[in-house]
Amino acid sequence: MSYEQRAVHLRAAIPEIPAEQVLDMLRHDDAVLIDVRDAEEVKGGLPEPAQHLARGQLELNIHHLVDDVHRPIAVMCASGLRSLFAAESLINLGYTKVFSVRGGFKQWKDAGLPTRVPQQLSVFDRERYSRHLLIPEVGEKGQLRLKSSRVLLLGAGGLGSPVALYLAAAGVGTLGIVDPDVVESSNLQRQVIHGEDQLGKLKVDSAEAAIHRLNSQIKVIKHPVLLDESNALSLLQDYDLVVDGSDNFKARYLVNDACVKLGIPNVHGAIYRFEGYVTTFAASDEAPCYRCMYPELPPPEMAPSCAEAGVLGVLPGVIGLLQAVEVIKLLLGIGRNLSGKMLRVDALNNEFSMLDIDKAEQCLCSHHRDEIQIKPIEAFACAI
Ligand SMILES: [Zn+2]
């Protein structure tokens, strides 16, 4: 059968729908619109509600976009011919409700239907993040999501160092850093973002230099201030997510209260000698928060004198990177996160254990967000 004969045959076999009808299908029938044109072709624009999956990738990757074979799929190309062949392939794969959009993208545009210009990674970024692009759960869409994400790191110390370096390497586009301190020689045993040549300099400056050596495209926003009740909300409000690597209880309560009020997830890490803890306070209605675990600031005599207690230098590397993994998953909306769970790491005995965190009924996180006030918190330092 010649190409023309096959096309005639397909036109008879594959249901075609006019572009104007597609929006109705998307709205009322939970349909999905797939634009199968090449990457070059969609650079100029594609239907606003369409997912792009180039013809050459269709059979391999369609299950990532549509896992229910009975979900209606409208396939679109430039003029409505390639989409017939693509639709035939989908039917052969077992999809039961496949349509071809008559007239393709040309018809869509002529009808004045909504379009968008897709964000795309540059050639350099494609190479740089190629190992991410190979993972279906990340892919180009996920990498673009990371690029547009804004993460605030509370502290550029033991935990903040590995988090900042790995998030920068992974392509998280904007990193804010809150830290009023300067680099001291006792920091270098674990705060690997700083070096000897940065001694005496502000940690935010030192961290920025290291981040830009690794990835010059990352926007670093420096906040060389102490987090307190007067600035917590304004510091946090422009970020998608906060990483708490703070070294004192006051900051932990403050960042918790502000994150709950603003609805921003908080990835929390803490370290003590050979032990570390990681959890995510998701800031959703069902999720517990830091105060659900510790309703009140512990009395000073109960809190360890951390400068004396010490910490194994590599432990914040382990805990910080577990936080970084949480961050990436949360930003991409993939996998299972640590909301409601506390991962405890005992490095001395090689034990990883998971503890449950229950939501406390009377906790601040059960209040309406508007009612939450950011109050002063009695401070005492825990300076690991
Ligand atoms: Zn709570």
UniProtKB/TrEMBL annotation:
UniProt keyword Membrane present:
yes
Entries under PROSITE patterns matching the protein: RHODANESE_3
- Mark the transmembrane ranges: 151-178
Domain Rhodanese, by residue range, is 27-117
Quote the CDD domains the UniProt record gives. ThiF_MoeB_HesA_family
GO molecular function (one): nucleotidyltransferase activity
Keywords from the named record: Membrane, Nucleotidyltransferase, Transferase, Transmembrane, Transmembrane helix
Classification via InterPro entries:
Rhodanese-like_dom, Rhodanese-like_dom_sf, ThiF/MoeB/HesA, ThiF_NAD_FAD-bd, Ubiquitin-activating_enz
Q: Which Pfam families match?
A: Rhodanese, ThiF
Question: Which SUPFAM superfamilies does this UniProt record tie to the protein?
Answer: Activating enzymes of the ubiquitin-like proteins, Rhodanese/Cell cycle control phosphatase
Q: Which NCBIfam families match?
A: PRK05690.1, PRK08762.1
Q: What is this protein called?
A: Molybdopterin-synthase adenylyltransferase MoeB
This protein's encoding gene:
moeB
